[in-house]
Design brief:
Helix 5 (70-77) crosses helix 6, helix 9 crosses helix 10 and helix 9 (140-148) crosses helix 11 (173-186). The protein has 211 residues and is mainly alpha-helical. The two termini are 17 Å apart. The chain contains 12 helices and no strands. It has helices at residues 3-17, 30-39, 45-58, 62-65, 70-77, 83-101, 109-113, 120-129, 140-148, 157-167, 173-186, 199-204. The radius of gyration is 18 Å and the shape is elongated.
Length: 211
């Protein structure tokens, strides 16, 4: 298969498996999505979805969040890991949203990435899923599968994102990155991986993975 044919195979297979793809993190608006994505760093989405209702019951907007102390936020989000850094980030970004953005989540990569504890991946998720701006957030699943599928050299996440944006049509990015995440979880995990169930890797994968 040519690279173009492999890309088409990925798109078609994922559309068959996931015609409607849900956003993995529960949220009701851009702010709650931003907080959920921040919490998901080195934590499972399942765990985040268990913790965010407890946090959002007390504060689901920046004005209520800054009424809590950093310690109160940390006590709630501790099960998500990295809680000292994340709690400071949540409190700090809520302050900045109030001071600089009228309490609203800004709709630009530059403004989002200027917020505490918000990196490029978090900004990409918010731009994509809250505002519908084409973006290709690369998480561990996408990084792993782009390498397994021989669509990226897998050296780092920055390169994987460049390759994904180069290979896949821009109008598909927002849906496709979610489809790849769900596929990675169900069919091509890092551990307990069964090649027989993983039709995409079996069909187009690197030689070392399909021996």
């Amino acid at each position: 298969m040519t690279q173009k044919e492999r890309v088409t195979f990925v798109i078609n297979t994922l559309n068959e498996l996931y015609p409607d793809v849900p956003v993995p993190l529960d949220h009701k608006d851009a702010y709650t999505l931003l907080i959920a994505v921040l919490l998901s760093a080195q934590c499972t989405d399942v765990r985040v979805n268990q913790i965010t209702p407890l946090l959002f019951a007390k504060a689901d907007n920046p004005y209520d969040m800054v009424k809590l102390s950093v310690q109160e936020i940390q006590d709630i989000i501790r099960p998500c890991g990295l809680s000292p850094m994340k709690s400071k980030g949540i409190y700090g970004l809520s302050q900045i949203l109030i001071e600089k953005h009228n309490g609203e989540v800004p709709q630009s990569f530059e403004d989002l990435e200027a917020l505490p504890a918000v990196g490029h991946k978090t900004a990409s998720v918010v731009m994509s899923q809250a505002f519908g701006v084409p973006a290709f957030p690369v998480d561990t699943h996408i990084h792993r599968l782009m390498h397994r599928w021989n669509l990226s050299n897998g050296k780092n996440i920055v390169q994987t994102e460049k390759d994904a944006k180069r290979l896949f049509p821009k109008e598909l990015w927002n849906k496709l990155h979610l489809q790849i995440i769900w596929y990675g979880r169900e069919y091509s995990p890092a551990r307990g991986w069964n090649l027989e169930k993983d039709v995409i890797t079996r069909t187009i994968g690197r030689k070392e993975f399909v021996k």
